[in-house]
Amino acid sequence: MTTASIKVAESPLVLYALRRADDALILGHRVSEWCGHAPMLEEDMALANIGLDLIGQARELYTYAAKVENAGNDEDKFAYLRDVRQYRNLLLVEQPNGDFARTIARQFFYSAFADPYWRAMMKSADATLAAIAAKSEKESAYHLRHTSEWMIRLGDGTDESHRRAQVAIDDLWSFSGELFHVDASDVELIVGGVAVDPEALRAGWMDTVSSVLAQATLTLPANNWMQKGGRTGHHSEHLGHLLSELQSMQRTFPNATW
Amino acid sequence: MVNSAASIHDLRQTAWNAAAQVVDPEIPVLTIADLGVLRDVTVTDEGVEVAITPTYSGCPAMNMIALEIELALAREGIRNSKVRTVLSPAWTTDWMTEHGRQKLKDYGIAPPQAGSGRRALFGEQQVACPQCGSIDTEVLSEFGSTSCKALWRCRSCREPFDYFKCH
User: Fold this and answer.
1) Chain B closest-CA separation from residue A128 CA (Å)
2) Is B167 within 8 Å of chain A by CB?
3) What does the alpha-carbon distance between residue B139 and residue B150 come to, in Å, rounded to a whole number?
4) With an 8 Å Cβ cutoff, are A136 and B122 in contact?
5) Which residue in B56, B140, B146 has the most chain A C-beta atoms within 10 A of its own C-beta, making it the best mutation to test that interface?
6) Residues B41-73, buried b or exposed e (16+ Cβ, 10 A)?
7) What ipTM did this prediction achieve?
8) Do A134 and B90 touch (CB under 8 A)?
9) Most A CBs within 10 Å: which of B55, B63, B87, as the mutation test of the A interface?
10) Cβ-defined contact of B87 to A60 (cutoff 8 Å)
11) In terms of CB atoms within 10 Å, which end of chain A has fewer, N or C?
12) What is the pLDDT of residue B124?
């Protein structure tokens, strides 16, 4: 037996919150897949902590989206009862963990954006988003610092760690452009001071990435062709597999609680 | 029944005192009042509402703290209680009481430095060893056994210790 997916009325504000919530949930889930498998105990705890922060941010954003939508949905329904095409996360965050270097590179690209993004969102005209931003900003700063140190340690480490870190950067680079995605739905929120124009964060993001990669003796790919689609529900094949695991309990035993 | 102002005041005080005794399940020497997690208690027509604020977005202790508050109030005969999570203003370690900091230190966890900020968050201040008091300490891992702690080591007495992250 399966449970039908919920319907979501995606007003600009609901969609905006859902997109950020989906980023945090999917990346948090990916990072949590390392629990018990990380290269060392300290890193196992670090990744689990990062995952916990992200899933916490997702819960707050989903809860707010549900409140704004006011249609009987809640954080659990958004997470467990939407199908792949209803998810609005970045393609970057759904990419598989791969090796440790790839997990760190994915988190680094994301956190280098999330840190200044949440800091800017603390001035949002929307009081709830500003409050969520005030918590997320400190967490993101911590994640950025941790992943920056690892990028440098891996890139400027052994031949093998350097090679793996460079492969990770090369493979994930084309998913970084979507961080700056804006569409018609966002524009009125940006004009109203509710949302931040990501274009204003591009130069800062590039500075952070270039400076860390330079210290890591890694190079940015010259290719600037960027993948997109996640924000409108066009995902890579990986998200469906992730959701089949994340949602299996609610899909198998609808409304199960414990 | 219309409550008088005095009885509302008493009810609020009883509820506050009960809620203030609830401890953080992950750091059981600290009450939520010591932590600054207990934000407000209000008496409404429906009952008593307790406002708490999370230390970290994903802090898994919040659900348990909310449940413990409802139980603590029920033990005082307050049945209609509700726990609300407030996000703004965001919690910082500055909200932890002096008494709370001392209890944390006695428990073996280095308390956060007063005056939170980005530098403090990254431990760029001197952190004294809670065992021997030496400031010759180093960070082992920026992530510790819970969201709110980092793992440090004392170079003097060689003991590893938890540091309550400052933010």
Assistant:
1) 8
2) yes
3) 8
4) no
5) B56
6) bebeeeebbbbbbbbbbbbebbeebbebbbebb
7) 0.79
8) yes
9) B87
10) yes
11) C
12) 63
pLDDT interval class at A225 (50, 70, 90): very high
Going from the N-terminus, what domains does chain A have, and what CATH number goes with each?
Answer: 12-252 (1.20.1260.10)
pLDDT tens, B77-87? 999 999 999 98
- Residue ranges of domains in chain B, CATH in brackets: 5-85 (3.30.300.130), 97-164 (no CATH)
Of B57, B88, B118, Cβ closest to residue A56: B57
pLDDT tens for residues A20-74?
999 999 999 999 999 999 999 989 999 999 999 999 999 999 999 999 999 999 9
CA distance A168 to A162: 10
CA–CA min distance A116, chain B (Å): 13
- The Cα A44–Cα B139 span in angstroms is 17
**Cα dist. B34→A69, B40, B120, B129 in Å?**
37, 14, 20, 21
Q: Hey, what are A47's tokens?
A: 């990744």
* Radius of gyration (C-alpha) of chain B in whole angstroms: 18
B150 touches B77 (CB < 8 A): no
pLDDT band (50, 70, 90) for residue B116: low
> With an 8 Å Cβ cutoff, are A45 and B167 in contact?
no
Element (H, E) at B51: strand B47-52
Determine whether the interchain pair A141/B60 forms a contact, defined as Cβ–Cβ distance below 8 Å.
no
Closest-approach residue (CA) in chain A for B87: A131
Packing angle of the helix pair A100-121, A12-32 (nearest 10 deg): 150
